[in-house]
Amino acid sequence: MMYNERVARLLTTLDDIEPQIWRRVEVPLAMSLKGLHDVIQAVMLFEDYHLFEFEADGRFYDVPDPAEDFGRKTYAAKNIRIRTLIDRGITTFAYTYDFGDNWRHTIVVEAVEDADPAYEYPRFLEGENRAPPEDVGGTFGFADFLEAMSKPRHPQHRELVQWYGSRFDPSDISVDLINQRIAKLARRRTLGKAGFARSQNQQH
């Protein structure tokens, strides 16, 4: 039985930064929040070095670590699906990545539609402005970084270019690289679904 999959169109915006850094993606409703974390990492070009957490309707979802108990209950991000949040009427929720730099994002569910069989999901649609590099020191560190990067005569310019590994163009979101990273996630998902379908067929 092939039913038409449903997808959510999500707008993810990095909080407290101007001009706004945002990405628009389409993800399957059956995707877990852990899967959505992977998608955000891919489109923001983060490296998945740090912990993350979603907050929706007063509940927190992460990768539970018995050694790290912040004194509040958290749920496993891999066990909750985007569909579940939407079914609860949640249309806006939060995602925080790297509690040191504290990159807080607001995620808005813009639409829920039938998937287009011509595409593999998740799918990157569009976005603006490059996200901060890893470990740049939060919003203030990023502001200093941008300032130094934009001025070749800035005393820290050369040192930061070396640290970052290249020049930093705040308006270039590297669409090709984003699409490459998203395609890898989509491929993995398609292969996983095919494997699951095969195992179902073998049982019948």
UniProtKB/TrEMBL annotation:
Gene source species: Roseibium aggregatum
Segments forming domain Plasmid pRiA4b Orf3-like: 8-175
PANTHER family: LEXA REPRESSOR-RELATED, TNPR PROTEIN
InterPro entries (alphabetical): MM3350-like_sf, Plasmid_pRiA4b_Orf3-like
One Pfam family from the record: PRiA4_ORF3
Name of the featured protein: Plasmid pRiA4b ORF-3-like protein
Lineage: superkingdom: Bacteria
